[in-house]
Amino acid sequence: MVGGKRVRTIDIHAHVVVPEATALMGTKTAPDNPALINAERFERMGEWGTDMQALSINANWYSLERDLVTQVIQIQNQKLAEICAKNPDRFVAFASVAMQFPELAAQQLEEGVKKYNLRGAAIGGHVNGDELSAAKFDPFWKKAEELGCVIFMHPQGIPEMNKRLAGNGGLTNVIGNPLETTIFLSHLIYDGTLDKFPGLKICAAHGGGYLPSYAARSDYGCVRFPETCKTIKKHPSEYLRQLYFDSMVFTPEGLRHLVAECGVSQIMIGTDYPFPWSTTTVDHVLKTPGLSDTDRRAILGENAAKLLHVNA
Hints:
By secondary structure, the chain is α/β, with parallel strands linked by helices.
């Protein structure tokens, strides 16, 4: 209850695994894998205060050849649909798509949305080193805009930086994941993808990486190097208001700043389940000073409910 009104809390950033698909890729899923749909997940959801999860599978199939990846994707999307149909009050899901074959990915997205009632797609931040702002990915972006569905982007690492990020601190994750998100979003802005497809609904994991916290430098870069900004129609920071973000910024000041830079309508809770990055996500929103009850309801569930077409 927030301000006397019930709100369904919706976690936009929750992982799942489909053992039948991982087996096709040569990996066995342990029976105690925390990403499975099991009693432990429901128990954790209760502890963390999340009513519903938007399930996604991290894209680890971009190196597969076409026939195999087609099988993997079909199995994953069918299983995701079955999970959601069995637990319609607890789960919605994002389709898997083979972004290394953009035309195929567009078809898989359409099938996922129209046949399997999936709510969009989950993608990685690059495809075998290629930026997703490249023209060859336009068929996918065009289809996503046409369908009006959400594309949830989750980083998958920056292989060329592994040496620099090695050592203490878990930097491939702690720094690498938000950095990849920042690079992905920046390319979509500066390379004109968001102008070409202004109706895109893209949600970036990990609070949008470093971009919302350094948006003013992006703007000033266009003053310093105007020739690099000729392809875009707005200041770089203005595009933050048409993107979506999870709330994984960890402190009240971080959430306050994210709201100030991006707008409360663009933010949804995310836990990174089953990884215990954000077990107090709901309390984080409830206890951040300066948010109104309307703001809290929006972040906790109403924004996600609108995007994912579920009852708040």
